[in-house]
Design a protein that fits this description.
Shape: globular
Helix content: 25-40%
Number of strands: 8
Length: about 230
Amino acid sequence: MFKLDSLRGCLVASVQALETEALHGSFVMAKMAKACVEGGASAIRANSKEDIDAIKQAVNVPVIGIVKRDYPDSDVYITATKKEVEELLSTRCEIIALDATFRPRPNQESLEELLLFIKQNNRYAMADISTIEEALYAKQLGFDLIGTTLAGYTPYSRKIDGPDIRLLKECRKRGIENLVAEGRIHSLEDMKKVQKQQPFMCVVGGAITRPKEITERFVGAMRCKK
């Protein structure tokens, strides 16, 4: 089992493409992950067993694994149930991330049960949270990493265009040492602001691996638009 502390101060590239996106496919995601590692990323965050398996063959760095799946009875969709955890356990991902918000989970499964299941299978667990209250609860439960991934994506969290620096400050103030800065880090300026909060590590996705979103931001800044 690799040492989690080896990722302290490092950049994680989130390499994902949903079925509706042009880059969807494990072959492309593996190539994208390789390019990110060549650029200096120390780990990869990836979605689905298929993508993780392909990425693990392409690069020799730790992977934070998730499975995104919609359920009709819940808004939780990042590694929502034991089924998704089992899929991730069948891969070689070192860390399993899951939605750790206070929203009701599908199938009435509990966050505590899923965390215990992950731990019993000797994987690190990362909590994706949206508020300081959720972060403190994740700390109490014993998550190895706590990320601001879902800040602004739950109905009750702050909606801002950029990383939630206030939440990062609150987490640091309340003694959350294993803090992962993730979510809407769009630019180098955003990264500088995040780094001032001294997170354990940072996860960047769209600004690196989603050319459609990157192009849209540049087009949006131009006078002449289609």
